[in-house]
Specification:
The chain is an alpha/beta fold. The protein has 10 helices and 5 strands. Helices cover 52% and strands 10% of the residues. Helix 5 crosses helix 8 and helix 8 packs across helix 9. The chain is elongated, with a radius of gyration of 24 Å.
Length: 191
């Protein structure tokens, strides 16, 4: 009975704007629901007052990463080709032909093209169907460059490419410059 009274008192304190304002409404509602089922699960005032939070940037990282993963067909890739975008132009056509040629030379190759600018890539459909395309710039629109590099590094370390080819992408150049030691230690070729 004492624990129930203490937790009921705690619920009233949390409703107080000083403490309540620290927590999202969905969390308070979940705590209230859990409290109805099991009075001992509700966190103590000490736990609540000392609780740390993940900021929204971490949530953005996860959402961007999840969106990237929706665009991949494989766990790892032989070639990653970075481009700013794939639109009408000579370098873009070269990038498309390059990616398609890599696939032609070795049918077993896994190829992924990643666009790094927040621009719709009108020519992405010119890539062979077996080549994955990730509109990274659009997925991470509104996220700062440093955060984009972190997201990209996590993605690249999980798909473990054998070769990275950069065609006019400043973000990819920054990635390679920032993570050069990791790439070299893991035998990832940079073209």
């Amino acid at each position: 009975a004492r624990l129930i009274a203490r937790n009921s008192k705690l619920i009233r304190k949390i409703r107080n704007k000083k403490i309540y304002g620290r927590f999202p409404e969905w969390l308070i509602n979940e705590w209230k629901s859990i409290h109805i089922i099991d009075k001992e699960i509700f966190p103590s005032i000490d736990v609540i007052c000392n609780m740390s939070f993940y900021d929204a940037e971490q949530i953005e990282f996860g959402m961007a990463y999840a969106q990237m993963m929706k665009n991949v067909s494989y766990d790892n890739y032989d070639y990653i080709v970075f481009v700013p975008y794939l639109n009408r132009g000579g370098a873009d056509l070269v990038a498309i032909k390059y990616a398609n040629a890599v696939l032609e030379l070795s049918k077993k190759s896994r190829v992924c093209v990643i666009s790094t600018e927040d621009v719709d890539s009108e020519w992405k459909n010119m890539l062979k169907n077996e080549i994955d395309f990730i509109p990274f710039g659009q997925i991470t629109a509104g996220i700062g460059v440093d955060a984009k590099l972190i997201i990209l590094s996590r993605f690249m370390s999980n798909i473990y490419p054998k070769c990275i080819h950069i065609i006019n992408s400043s973000l990819a150049y920054d990635y390679v410059s920032s993570f050069n030691k990791y790439l070299n230690q893991n035998g990832i070729k940079i073209i």
